[in-house]
Amino acid sequence: MGSRKIAVLTSGGDAPGMNAAIRAVVRSGIYLGMEVYGVRRGYNGLLNGDLIPMDLRSVSNIIQLGGTILYTARSPRYNTPEGVKEAADQCRALGIDGVVVIGGDGSFRGARDLTGAGIPCIAIPGTIDNDIACSDYTVGFDTAMNTAMEMIDKIRDTSQSHDRCSVIEVMGRRCGDICLNTGIAVGATATLVPEVPYDFQRDIIDKIKLAQTTGKQHFIVVVAEGVSGGFAGVEKIAKKIEEVTGIESRATVLGHVQRGGSPTLRDRVMASSMGAYAVDLLNRGVSNRVVAYTDGRITDYDITTALNMPRKFDTELYRTSDRISI
Description:
Strand order of the largest sheet: 3-2-1-4-5-10-11
Shape: elongated
Number of helices: 12
CATH architecture of the largest domain: 3-Layer(aba) Sandwich
Helix content: 40-55%
Radius of gyration: 22 Å
Oligomer: single chain
CATH class of the largest domain: Alpha Beta
Order of helices and strands: EHEHEHEHEHEHEHEHHEHEEHH
Number of domains: 2
Structural class: alpha/beta
Distance between the termini: 60 Å
């Protein structure tokens, strides 16, 4: 017999599509005859007993919203053995016998620890970075890429008008997937990702000079935050480009605009599928699993196994990016 009274929480950085996942968890749980509760502000909410009962109408008109209606927070207090025990005790006191956790790898560790303390958990990958190794796709990734693409398209308009080089940092932490895909989508002259060491002369200057010989006069360089490390980093790259080439160069950090906005169709559907799958696992009495999208289908992995898997970088897509950026 699986869980009959479950809770759902969002943890870590917010991602577009989290609300769609919450909606799917609530409605799937109710469909299966469960009581469903929403935990506000992540693991802090478990510690503080900040849970609210959810019904079918609690999640009406949220599938199109960015952010998370349950709010999110990072919890240093939870990240201790005492904190985990306290959260598990709270769950038992409230009768919660299963928890769905939506977040990134830090949230998964929290789910694993809570499972170890006796409360079955299922984790859903909700992070714009697409940096969960066991899953080919994470909720929020598509929306973040589309937001970055739209912002860079606007920057490109002014860059072209002034014959400038624009150096633009996108998010992704230590993962270059947003940068690589966005770089291709906006026709960047150079795309710098953490997974591939770059040479300033070969990978930026030489490409710009080659493009100049064919008549190109404005340039886009897209840089992952794991390469530049903030505005000082992209500003340094922009200044160096201007010094070497004489092309006026400007730096831009897109920042948290990439976390917001209405989720794309892909994020809504993926979040809905993963949310329903997570509830099915709890209903079958399964726990300590990460829901994942692998080889075109929804599946699941042991959390510890998932956390230890090496992340794959699409080297073929990177080669394509390099080849068509001339």
